[in-house]
Amino acid sequence: MATGRARLLHQHWLGVQALRLPLGGLGAIPGSGGFSLPSEILLKILSYLDATTLLCTGCVNRRFYHLANDNFIWIRIYSTAFSPKRCNWRIDPVEKTVASMNLLSVEDKEAGYWKKEYIAKRIASVKAALAQVLKLVNPYTGLPAKTKEALRISGLGWVIILKEKSGKEHVMEHADLFINHSSVMVVWYSKNWPSLATLSTLDLCGVTPVLMDWHKPPTKNGPRWPSLVAKYSLSNLTDSTLVGCDRFVRIFHLNPGLLVGLWKRAEELAFVMANLHFHHLVEKAHWARPPCTYPSIVHLVFVKCSCSPEYGLHGYQLHVDLHSSGTFYLCSTFRNLFTKQGDTEFLLQFEKKRSIHAAANGYIENGYVKLIVIHFQNSTEHLPLIGKVGLSWRTDVFDGCIKSCSVMDVTLLDEYGKPFWCFSSPVCMQSSANPSDGPYFVGPTYCIDYEDSTGTMHMELVWIEETEEYFIVSMVLYLSIAKINHWS
C-alpha cells in the first residue's frame, strides 16, 4: 500500500513538473537549470518506499544518497521489521519509555546508522536460516542434504568479471545452471564476448541480494552482495590443459573446476563453464571464507614404524559421480575403505542398489597412501558407465558434445564422516596400454586421471564392443600423507 501511495505521489509530481518546468528532473540540483524539490518533501516521498527501493534510490545521485540514509526513515523500517512478535492490549510503561528514548537518540547517530543496523540484522537472519537448513547431512555423501534448498532461499546467483589489461571490467550473468547430486554446473555464453587478447583475469563471484525477500524471486537489478569464489588468469589460456575438442570448439581446463571453450576458427571465447562442489559452497558464495566447522581431530599415519601395522586409514568413504549437463554416467558410493602399513586385507563395500564384499590390498609408499577402490582381479567390482559419455555444451548459436569427456565429482569422507577431499572437475578419457599387472581385456583400454595438492585419482576403463559401453576395471586413490597428518 505504501508503495502504491509513493507511485501515485511520484506520478502526480511528474505531471505537475511537466506543466511547470519542462527542463530538469525530480530533485534536480539547485542552479542546474531545473526545479529542485525541498528536502522535506523528498524525505516524505522516500518514507513511503520499501527498504530495497530505498537502497536503489540512494544510487541515483549524491543528494539522493544522503537523503536515503535518513535515520528517521530507517528506524521506522527497522522497528517494523524486527518488532516483538506479540500483541499487548496495554503497553508496558517501561517499554514505552525505552521506545521514546530510541526515537530521541536517532539524531545522535551518524547518518546511515539505522540503515546499516537493518542490513546487518537482515543478513544475520539469512545466515541463521541457512545454517538451520544446512544442518541435516546426507549419509551417502556426507554433505548437507538440503543444499539445493539453501541455494534457492538464499537467492544466490553467479557472475563472472572479465578484467582487461587496461583495467576495464565486463560483468556477465550466468546463462544456464545445473544442480547435480554434489555439485553445481554454471554456464556463461554470449554473442558479445570481449576479445581474448585484451583479457587478463576472470573472477568467479557468487552474488546474493542484500535484502532477501523470501516471498519474491531475486531481481538482477536490485542491490546485491558479491563474494569472490575463485580467480583465474587468462593471459596464457591456450597453454592450459586441453580437455578435448570437436569441430567447433576447443575446451581448456583452469584449476579449480573451470572450463573455457574457444572457437576453433577465431580463437575467441565461446562459453565458460564453472563446476563447483557442494562442500562449503553456500558459505563461500555468501561470505567468501567458509567458517571452520571441523572438530579438532588429528589423523595420524605412522609411516616408518613397521612394528605397528594397526595404524593407518580406516573407515573412509568415497562417493563418485560422472555427469554432464544433468546426465549421469556413474553414481556410486564405496564404504569402509582402509589401509595399513604394508600388505593388508581390507573390506570394500560397494553400494549401488546392492552391497558387494571384496578384498583388496592397501599400501603406504612414496609419501602417499594408496587406496584401491576397484581392482583388476575381481570382476564383480567392475562398473559400467551408463549411456554415451560426452560433455555437452551450448551457446546462442551452436551446441555440441565433446566425446569421452565429462565432469567428475568426488567426495571422500574420513572416519568421522567429515569431507576430507572434495572436487568437481572436467576429465577426459585417454587411450592407455593394457595394464601389465592385470588380466588381458578384449577391447581398447582408457584411463582417467585427476591430481591436486591433496592427492591423485586414477581410473582404468575398457570399451566393450558387444554392449557398446565402458567398464571401470580399476580405481585407485593416492592421498598425501602430509595432508593426512595435518588434517584436523
TrEMBL record:
**Name of the featured protein:** F-box domain-containing protein
Ranges where the F-box domain occurs: 31-77
Q: Which domain of life is it from?
A: Eukaryota
- Cellular-component GO terms for this entry: SCF ubiquitin ligase complex
Enumerate the Gene3D superfamilies for this protein: 1.20.1280.50
The record, for InterPro entries, names: F-box-like_dom_sf, F-box_dom
The cross-references to Pfam families, in alphabetical order and at most eight, read:
F-box-like
Span of the signal peptide:
1-18
Give the UniProt keywords, A-Z: Signal
Organism, as annotated? Cnephaeus nilssonii
SUPFAM superfamilies, A to Z: F-box domain
Q: Does the keyword Repeat apply?
A: no
The family database entries (CDD domains) matched by this protein are listed as: F-box_FBXO15
Quick check: keyword Signal in the entry? yes
